[in-house]
Amino acid sequence: MRRSPIRLVVRAMHSRYHFGDVVPEPIFSRARVHAVKPVRVFAQWPIYFLGRMVPAAVGFAGIALYTRLLDPGSFGTYAVLLSTAFLVGITGFSWLRIATLRMIATVEASQEADFTATIAWSFAGTSIVVAAAIFLTLRIYQPTLSLTSEILTAAAAIASGWFELNITVSQARLKLITMSGLAMARATGTLGFSLAFIALGLKSNALLGGFVMGNSLSLGALWLWRPAVRGRFSREIFLRMIRFGWPSSAGSLNLFAITFQRYLLAAVGGSSVLGVYAAASDFSQQTVGLLIGTATLAGQPLAYRARDSGSPSELAEQMRNNARLIFVVGIGSAAGLIALAGPLAHVYLGAKFQIDAHALIAISALIVVISAFRANYFDQVFEIALDTRPMAIITGMRIAVTVVFSVFLISRFSSIGAAASLLISEIVGISVTVVWAWRVMPIPLPLLSFAKTGLAAAAMVGVIELIPGRDSLGGLCATILVGMLVYFTALVALHVQQVRALADIARVRFFSARIGS
After folding, report:
1. Is 293 helix (H, G, I), strand (E, B) or coil?
2. Alpha helix segments (H runs only) across 200-289
3. Residues 278-302: pLDDT tens digits?
4. How confident is the model at residue 134 (pLDDT cuts 50, 70, 90)?
5. Contact, 15 vs 504, CB < 8 A?
6. What pLDDT digit, counting tens, does each position of 331-340 carry?
7. Of the candidates 288, 287, 315, 311, which has an alpha carbon nearest to the alpha carbon of residue 301?
8. Residues 6+ apart with CB under 8 A from 266
9. Which residues have a Cβ under 8 Å from the Cβ of 228 and sit 6 or more positions away?
10. What is the pLDDT of residue 510?
């Protein structure tokens, strides 16, 4: 007998579905209201993912073009200047970004105008400090550097900080379309302006200028700051944000290790060696790092809200789902990148950038996935608990490890030594972070799900190794598509119960929407 949509809805709503279990629960209970919250990250993540696919593709194409249009020396100069901009800029603006993300969702309506105005004025003041610090750093590092390069480096730090602040406000308010639009505008704008500047005969300044222009397109999101017009700077709000956010800025000094490495590598091997190293490591960040970052954007606000307004069980379930998603995305992308490191270096990078590139891509993929899991999952424990001081302490430890091993290994093994130093530092960092975070609060770790994901990744790598012709563009593209298909199919096969639960939730929402309309 054919069941009506109402019967299907009523029957489905008599059960509560979690990712990984099915627990009977009476209809219309208070718990039912929150029943699907733990899986919201899986429902929202595809929106973030699609919104960042275009930027990922554009950035991916950008490195391939730059390594063919520029020489390694010019790319190396750009890499060290951009690294300087990131070090000073992220350190300067990180406290503001993390405080905004953590607090904006719980600000009362009566304080919204003053809160927004305080953020805007804080950004303006911090920008002055950041610009002065960059000019001073570059004058000490290379007094002969042109004024144009100095100005572009400072502008890159400020423009990037403004972009990230707009993304943070959009993220906290769950404005998915705004986030996607900003990300696509920055990616396409950066590539377009960079290629135009290269055509005009510029080299490293072409990429810096393109980066500044691409990030400046986030000025299109000025409407997010309309409440600031009605508000005024609040010293009380400012001090509260400083107290919460300063450990994050201190933690951002981890970029000192990367910048130190690049300065040292340029001094030991020259700008050309640095250019090859930067291209390979940036490739891993553009792929693995971007995908994991997308998963984090979907899950972090939900975990904060579960902490502020939900029960401990909701927070644990939300974090468990965040861990699953980060692991699925991170392990899958890193395993594929490592398996295809050789073909990717041969097909993707310009001929002058292929020295040791396959090894650098593989090591960098490991570095990115370990770093991302530490920063996007375990560090979140300190942010949720409003105790971010351990992040600063652990960062100092990681910087010390990186610097010591870099001095020892770069002089002996050049760019491979630089990558190995970062890998050692990340292994030490995540080990200490896990131990410390566990003392703050119990950390949900879905080990069975991790094991299943590992099996799916192993199946994907096994199939990739059997495919011939991976060194050609067509063969590489076909291999990537086959690998993705195998990985997805294996994940579904190993998580049949969870997939059915999610399908049931989707069916309930569909029929509920039809009945409501």
Report:
1. helix
2. 204-216, 227-230, 235-251, 254-269, 271-284
3. 998 888 887 787 777 766 665 666 6
4. very high
5. yes
6. 999 999 999 9
7. 315
8. 76, 80, 273, 274
9. 113, 116, 117, 119, 120
10. 58
Bridge partners of 79, per DSSP, are none
Q: How many CA atoms lie within 13 A of 18 on its CB side?
A: 18
pLDDT for 140 beyond 70: yes
Q: Please state, in angstroms and rounded to a whole number, the distance separating the CA atoms of residues 53 and 59.
A: 10
pLDDT tens, residue by residue, 21-53: 333 333 233 333 333 344 444 455 555 556 666
With CA atoms as reference, report the closest residue to 78 among 271, 214, 264, 283: 271
Whole-number CA gyration radius for the chain: 24
| 405 close to 421: Cβ distance less than 8 angstroms | yes
Q: Angle formed by the axes of helices 290-309 and 72-103, to 10°?
A: 10
Burial environment of residue 304 by CB neighbours within 10 A (0 to 12, 13 to 18, 19 or more):
buried
Alpha-carbon distance of 102 to 433, in angstroms, equals 20
pLDDT for position 32: 34
pLDDT in tens, 433-489: 999 988 888 888 888 889 999 999 999 999 999 998 898 989 999 999 999 999 999
Number of H helices, E strands in the chain: 21, 2
Are 66 and 76 spatial neighbours (Cβ–Cβ below 8 Å)?
A: no
Comparing CA positions, the residue from 279, 269, 228 lying closest to residue 72 is 279
d(CA 419, CA 400): 15
Would you call 146 exposed, middle or buried from its count of C-beta atoms within 10 A (0-12, 13-18, 19+)?
Answer: exposed
**Are 390 and 382 a contacting pair, CB within 8 Å?**
yes
Residue of 419, 411, 403, 407 whose CA lies nearest to 357 = 419
In three-state form (DSSP H/G/I as H, E/B as E, the rest C), the secondary structure along 371-416 is HHHHHHHHHHHHHHCCCCHHHHHHHHHHHHHHHHHHHHHHHHHHHH
For strands 21-24 and 15-18, give the pairing. Answer: antiparallel
For residues 149 and 296, give the distance between their C-alpha atoms in angstroms, rounded to a whole number. 34
- Residue 16 bridge partners (DSSP): 23
Q: Which residue is it, tokens 């790092």?
A: 289
The pLDDT value given to residue 152: 96
**310 and 183 in contact (C-beta within 8 Å)?**
no
Q: Tokens 């403004």 appear where? A: 162
Handedness of CA 240, 243, 249, 251 (dihedral sign): negative
